[in-house]
Design goal:
disordered C terminus; 152 residues; elongated; mainly alpha
């Protein structure tokens, strides 16, 4: 019991010593939580309900976006991925924010990664829960399990 008391005193001493850093971490954590609630839900509602239906089949190559738009889009996605990673350890919707950052970015192998992630029931449920709260129709997901079973 005495060891726990000494350990708590050490933690309290460190908290007093690093008050500014703890305050900054608290602010960043709170800002990430608010960002997760506002921006992520807005992005989920912005996507059309049939957004994931085209992911199982190859489609025509997308039109090339202007370079500046692609850079801004990839930077926004990178910020979402970074914040999602942080939110895995602090309050917030970490997995969902990571997923949306990947959806926004352009990189090789993106389609396969999104298919792997969107097959998770947790992600589907979270996405449709947000859409329901905002009065939007739920996402329609393809039945990838039958597609993959037929090809085997």
């Amino acid at each position: 019991m005495c060891g726990i008391y000494l350990h708590m005193n050490t933690v309290l001493d460190m908290a007093r010593q690093y008050q500014e850093i703890l305050a900054l971490l608290t602010i960043v954590s709170a800002a990430g939580f608010v960002f997760g609630l506002l921006a992520v839900s807005r992005l989920v509602c912005w996507l059309p309900a049939s957004y994931f239906m085209g992911y199982g089949t190859p489609g025509p190559a997308p039109k090339l976006l202007r370079r500046r738009v692609r850079v801004v889009k990839n930077l926004a996605g990178l910020v979402l991925v970074f914040l999602g990673f942080i939110m895995l350890f602090v309050p917030g919707q970490g997995l969902l924010t990571l997923f949306l950052g990947i959806v926004v970015m352009d990189f090789p192998g993106k389609k396969k990664l999104i298919i792997w992630l969107i097959r998770m029931r947790q992600i589907q449920t979270s996405l449709n829960w947000i859409r329901k709260k905002k009065g939007r129709p739920p996402f329609v997901f393809p039945n990838w399990s039958t597609k993959f079973n037929k090809s085997r």
